[in-house]
Amino acid sequence: MKLDTSGLESFAPLSAPIDDLCPDLSAPPTFDLPRSADFDGFQKDAIQMVKPAKGTTTLAFIFKEGVMVAADSRASMGGYILGPGLYYVDSEGGRLKGTRFSVGSGSPYAYGVLDNGYRYDMSIEEAAELARRAIYHATFRDAASGGVASVYYVGPSGWKKLSGDDVGELHFRYYPVAPSPTEQEMSELSPA
Amino acid sequence: MECVFGLVGDGFALIAADTSAVHSILVHKSNEDKVMILDSHKLLGASGEGGDRVQFTEFIQKNVHLYQFRNGIPLTTAAAANFTRGELAIALRKNPNFVNILLAGYDKDIGPSLYYIDYIATLHKIEKGAFGYGSYFALSMMDRHYHSGMSLEEAIDLVDKCIMEIRSRLVVAPPNFVIKIVDKDGAREYAWRESVKDAGVAAA
């Protein structure tokens, strides 16, 4: 049986044309690569980065400076984040391309905070704080989410872990406890 | 809650679909394009479960392209519809695809046509059709106002009537719709009908 290799035939000219008459003819399609010395390693590292960050509230969004990724640290589920774009992929074969996603049992809580605070042109610090806050609020309301809120930034020169805060600590940072009057009075009593 | 509906007019066929990507109570995306451009003169509007819609429709699209690469000529709309139905039928008793499809196309000597293909591999050539909860409203609207040989203006007006009815009467109505058209000049996007804009969209 003769093998059908017609699909391998290329219609592009064998060598680049020298003349200026058809400048666009043999220009191969191109796309931007991340500015990193080790492109294959960058892709692999991006996958490794997501593995330990398995949480039940995971979110990621695209903004002006790149991609922000955040997750809590409790068991199961996880979004698969890929390259400079952002895709939501699930175990049923669903695939969505978008700018903002959250997955897991705590995701509805995270979506609310994320959607409300989102702007495309945020700085990296603003975007990280938005991601952190959204995870915190989800861990507050969802019993199955909690632990540590990890925030990662993915940009043209690779990924970087920005923070890993215990959500219990975040709670008192966002909502500090004012000392009650009785305690203050007691500390003013001089010893007899 | 996914709605897809379509009709055949004078020298063209239209397909409209909602653009929400929903997971239980969450709307993940409100600008998801569910009407695929199958080839230069064919549209495939699909509604169905999770991965099945994207995976099955892309599979059909790539096979339609492959036929054209191998043979140098495109498939007719009828051939593409029968191929799609065949694939659904083969998979039905093993790993069924829960996708409902409206396939619209324009063939040079035949004109515009619309095919109804449901998830259990039923195939019908039709003038107007609809899938999803929205079909309860769209079908009667189309039955009342449709006539064969409608102009583009009349057809878009009918599509808008259906969308308004779905928006006002369906309990969890999708806010946004996309309308695509296929005629002698090819398959292309005609319009979006948006009542909720995605915040801070950077052309995803």
Automatic annotation (TrEMBL), chain A:
The record's InterPro entries line, in alphabetical order, gives: Ntn_hydrolases_N, Proteasome_sua/b, Proteasome_suB-type
Tell me one Pfam family matched here: Proteasome
Give the UniProt entry's GO cellular component terms. Answer: cytoplasm; proteasome core complex
Q: Does the keyword Oxidoreductase apply?
A: no
Keywords in alphabetical order: Proteasome, Zymogen
Q: Which organism is it from?
A: Cocos nucifera (Coconut palm)
Subunit field text: The 26S proteasome consists of a 20S proteasome core and two 19S regulatory subunits. The 20S proteasome core is composed of 28 subunits that are arranged in four stacked rings, resulting in a barrel-shaped structure. The two end rings are each formed by seven alpha subunits, and the two central rings are each formed by seven beta subunits. The catalytic chamber with the active sites is on the inside of the barrel.
Protein name (record):
Proteasome subunit beta type
Xref: SUPFAM superfamilies: N-terminal nucleophile aminohydrolases (Ntn hydrolases)
One of the protein's GO biological processes = proteolysis involved in protein catabolic process
| Presence of the UniProt keyword DNA repair in the record | no
| Ranges in a coiled coil | none
Automatic annotation (TrEMBL), chain B:
Q: Name one GO biological process term.
A: proteasomal protein catabolic process
| Chief place where the protein resides | cytoplasm
- In Pfam terms, one family for this protein is Proteasome
The keyword Nucleus belongs to this UniProt entry's keyword annotation: yes
- Show the GO cellular component annotation of the record: cytoplasm; nucleus; proteasome core complex
What compartments host this protein? Cytoplasm; Nucleus
Q: Keywords, A to Z?
A: Cytoplasm, Nucleus, Proteasome
Q: Which InterPro entries match?
A: Ntn_hydrolases_N, Proteasome_alpha, Proteasome_beta2, Proteasome_bsu_CS, Proteasome_sua/b, Proteasome_suB-type
* Source organism superkingdom: Eukaryota
Q: Does the keyword Oxidoreductase apply?
A: no
Q: What does this protein do?
A: Non-catalytic component of the proteasome, a multicatalytic proteinase complex which is characterized by its ability to cleave peptides with Arg, Phe, Tyr, Leu, and Glu adjacent to the leaving group at neutral or slightly basic pH. The proteasome has an ATP-dependent proteolytic activity. Component of the proteasome, a multicatalytic proteinase complex which is characterized by its ability to cleave peptides with Arg, Phe, Tyr, Leu, and Glu adjacent to the leaving group at neutral or slightly basic pH. The proteasome has an ATP-dependent proteolytic activity.
Q: Which family is this sequence assigned to? A: Belongs to the peptidase T1B family.
Quaternary structure annotation from Swiss-Prot or TrEMBL: Component of the proteasome complex. The 26S proteasome consists of a 20S proteasome core and two 19S regulatory subunits. The 20S proteasome core is composed of 28 subunits that are arranged in four stacked rings, resulting in a barrel-shaped structure. The two end rings are each formed by seven alpha subunits, and the two central rings are each formed by seven beta subunits. The catalytic chamber with the active sites is on the inside of the barrel.
Q: Which PANTHER family match?
A: PROTEASOME SUBUNIT ALPHA/BETA
Protein name as catalogued = Proteasome subunit beta
